[in-house]
Amino acid sequence: TEDEVMRVSDYTRQTLIAASQGSLLARECDSFEGRRPTTLCNVGSKLEGPMDHFIDWRESAGVNTEKFYKTTLWQGEHVTVGLNCLESNQTQSVHAHQGADKIYFVLEGRGRFTIGAEERDAHAGMLVVAPAGVPHGVTNVNAERLSLLVAIAPGIK
Q: pTM score, two decimals?
């Protein structure tokens, strides 16, 4: 049948498979450990997961002790929206995206952000913008978790 979807809730780095018009599409997903999987994944114009227009980011929050936790909340043709959770002293290394702007919205906690040559702290409620090609990164320098809503446009394919 058209747009059949296999939904999996407890897995780590397994493949979410969707059948659409007889062809299989695959996408590697992050660990969900009991939380709901990515709500929508577009591959071209074909959907890989159930569409959800209202997303509670707290249902997707997680911990990765080896490096910071990240998961995709929603992916469309023009933008990718994700959640990054950094525990105390965890860092997203400085990097850049050529041809894609990145926006961080601090949901909870406080982090030290690097955008180009500028380094500055941002707390819950603040927006931090890294234009395309500008090096950026973040470190959680506090005891409590730093949770960030992250958008990249155009989306990373």
A: 0.68
